[in-house]
Design goal:
Blueprint: H1 3-17, H2 21-33, H3 52-68, H4 74-97, H5 103-132, H6 139-160, H7 162-200
């Protein structure tokens, strides 16, 4: 892989780690173990992700996340716990993918990887918090399943076609920003509506005037 492909894969993995950290590690490790993701010589240290122990832990984490993410409010608690874990995991994945002989690239990859994972994590956590207030009982599971499918599909594309990874990373980043901005506006409108409704509500006659 050339530098563009490496940066694309690093960006894609970091952003997807903000959605599904354990699935991202598991898929990357499996791809390396079976040779689906060829690595340059300076990245051979990443083969640690193909270790049976790492794969086993990642598989357990993927399974736990799969079920926790399907239950309303449990998913928000899970997201809260992983508010540090996902960005850190995304940063370390990006850090491991760049040339360790260049400190500038190492720092850049760590910051961008962590920032990308935090961005996608923020979009995911905010979306799920909004979905959780919906009275419809199945929306949470539907959204979570859609995230599972999207993460798996985008991981497969980034690993199988590294030249496409940079486009995937850019699109994921743009989508995360759009989602965060849209949800912030929605929450602001809901807050304003509630404030107006409460302000227009008649005062309780039993309460003394202030």
């Amino acid at each position: 892989m050339g530098i563009v492909e490496i940066l694309g894969v690093a960006g894609s993995l970091s952003l997807l780690a903000g959605w599904r950290l354990y699935l991202t590690i598991l898929a990357t490790g499996v791809a390396m173990r079976f040779g689906w993701l060829p690595l340059p010589e300076h990245l051979q240290a990443l083969q640690i992700l193909a270790s049976p122990w790492i794969l086993g832990v990642a598989a357990l984490g993927t399974l736990a996340e799969f079920f926790a993410d399907k239950v309303a409010w449990v998913d928000s608690i899970w997201d809260g716990i992983h508010s540090i874990v996902r960005p850190l995991g995304g940063a370390l994945l990006a850090l491991a993918l760049v040339d360790s002989s260049d400190p500038a690239w190492q720092v850049t990859a760590f910051l961008l990887g962590g920032g990308g994972a935090l961005l996608s994590h923020g979009a995911k956590a905010t979306t799920r918090a909004v979905v959780n207030v919906s009275p419809e009982p199945y929306s949470n599971a539907v959204v979570s399943t859609g995230e599972d499918v999207a993460t798996g599909g985008l991981l497969a594309l980034a690993i199988a076609f590294p030249p496409l990874a940079i486009a995937i990373a850019i699109l994921l980043a743009i989508a995360a920003v759009i989602v965060i901005v849209a949800l912030r506006r929605l929450l602001r409108n809901i807050k304003a509506t509630l404030k107006k409704a409460l302000g227009d509500a008649p005062a309780d006659p039993a309460l003394p005037p202030t």
